[in-house]
Amino acid sequence: MNLFRLTLLAVFAFGISAVAGANAGPGSQRQAEILYLLRHDCGSCHGMRLEGGLGPPLTPPALSRLSNEQIVATILHGRPGTPMPPWRPFLSPDEARWLASRLKEGMNP
């Protein structure tokens, strides 16, 4: 992902988060934006169907051994020593919790 795209995502994410409030879950517009991020950015490593690729699968069976908070921590802080980057610049903890719950439920991007 190039620097321009990262910058745009950061500005957009922080702007939406500030409007939505620090403790509020994502509204429907922000949910759509997070799902876009999931499809296009997460999908580039975890596979377009989230069944694995460079990164491991993000399917309910693959995530079943992890708690939601472990998934949230991975989303926000990445995994040092792997290609998994921290997404904290783009997602709030509440948004990461929402995404972790959707992934464990088996949402299809």
From the structure above, extract its key features.
globular, disordered N terminus, mainly alpha, 109 residues, Cytochrome Bc1 Complex, Chain D, domain 2, single chain
Number of strands: 0
Would you state the CATH class?
A: Mainly Alpha
Q: Architecture in CATH?
A: Orthogonal Bundle
- From the 3D structure, determine the CATH topology: Cytochrome Bc1 Complex, Chain D, domain 2
- CATH homology superfamily: Cytochrome c-like domain
Structural class: mainly alpha
Q: Main sheet, how many strands, which sense, barrel?
A: none
The dominant shape is globular
Radius of gyration: 13 Å
Q: What does this protein structure show overall?
A:
This protein is globular. It has helices at 3-20, 28-46, 60-63, 68-77, 93-105. It has a single domain, classed as Cytochrome Bc1 Complex, Chain D, domain 2 (Orthogonal Bundle), CATH 1.10.760.10. The chain has 109 residues and is mostly helical. The protein contains five helices and no strands. Helix 4 (68-77) packs across helix 5.
Write the layout of secondary structure elements.
Elements: H1 3-20, H2 28-46, H3 60-63, H4 68-77, H5 93-105
Short description:
This protein is mostly helical. Helix content is 59%, strand content 0%.
